[in-house]
Amino acid sequence: MTNSQILIVDTVTKLGPEAAGNVVIAASHGGVYAGYEAAHAGVRGVILHDAGVGLDAAGIGSLSYLEQLGIAAATIDYRSAVIGDGDSLANEGTISFVNDTAAAAGCRPGQPALACAQAMTTAPGNSSNVPVYDEARFVIRAGAEGPIVRGCDSVSLVRAEDEGVIVITASHGELLAGSPSWGNRPKVRAAVFNDAGSSTVTRLPDLDTRDIPAATVTAASARIGDAKSSYEDGVISHVNETAAALGAAPGMTTIAFVDLVIEKAE
């Protein structure tokens, strides 16, 4: 047995030094980028949200990534708990998938989240260096004929310099339970998220309050955590009122949504 603790957080992108050596239940999607953030923080084990699994099983991509690093990892069934809400995952979540390291510690599908987390406290953890994740913030369209279109694999990568930029973020479309707003992020020209299999995408009406057109792509159409896929493959599932006023609608592609925003900006 170890003295490992169980931490419950709304997002894996803001882990501090307290995460090192401990088990974390984080209400982020279970994509590779989230797995990198957990590994970089030095966790003993992590439980994330499977985000509806989605295209190429991207919503659970962190499991194999973390297995290669010897870190126990599991995901919560998206039908059992609310993404972006750590307490929901911990208290309501049911395990959907586990990696081999987690299974060896006693984790299994169908298990309550807290039981899985407790089992992970016996996992070995990782003592090796974590490879640097490839650039997760990049220009998709340079803006020669309108606003810049920037890809951000996580909404946490949106910066002050993105004022007036169209951001394609591969994060889920729910507000964080403990931080229910766009916060101090800049007023972007428009924003796209992944719906993570959810029919309630609370970030969209929040962005209406900033007059920011916003949409989500279906988890089945684009890899969550992958902004390039969100742009190239994404099919819109939800739009907010500001976007609808421009003519945006579910069923259009992300590229068509971006073209519409640029056309209306001219």
Tag the structure with descriptive keywords.
6-stranded mixed sheet, 266 residues, 26% helix, 5-stranded mixed sheet, 11 strands, alpha/beta
Q: Can you give me a brief rundown of this structure?
A:
This protein has 2 domains: 6-120, no CATH class; 137-265, no CATH class. It has 9 helices and 11 strands. The protein has helices at 32-40, 61-68, 86-92, 100-105, 113-120, 203-208, 227-232, 241-246, 254-265, and strands spanning 6-9, 23-29, 45-49, 72-76, 95-98, 137-141, 149-152, 166-172, 190-194, 214-217, 236-239.
Total beta strand runs: 11
| Main structural class | alpha/beta
Task: Compute the average pLDDT.
Answer: 94
**Unreliably modeled segments:** none
Write up this protein.
The chain has 266 residues and is of the alpha/beta class. It folds into 2 domains: 6-120, no CATH class; 137-265, no CATH class. It is built from 9 helices and 11 strands. Strands 6-7-8-9-10-11 form a 6-stranded mixed beta sheet. A 5-stranded mixed beta sheet has the order 1-2-3-4-5, with helices on both faces. The longest helix has 12 residues, at 254-265.
Write the layout of secondary structure elements.
Elements (H helix, E strand, L loop, with lengths): L5 E4 L13 E7 L2 H9 L4 E5 L11 H8 L3 E5 L9 H7 L2 E4 L1 H6 L7 H8 L16 E5 L7 E4 L13 E7 L17 E5 L8 H6 L5 E4 L9 H6 L3 E4 L1 H6 L7 H12 L1
Parallel strand pairs: 1-2, 2-3, 3-4, 7-8, 8-9, 9-10
Antiparallel strand pairs: 4-5, 6-7, 10-11
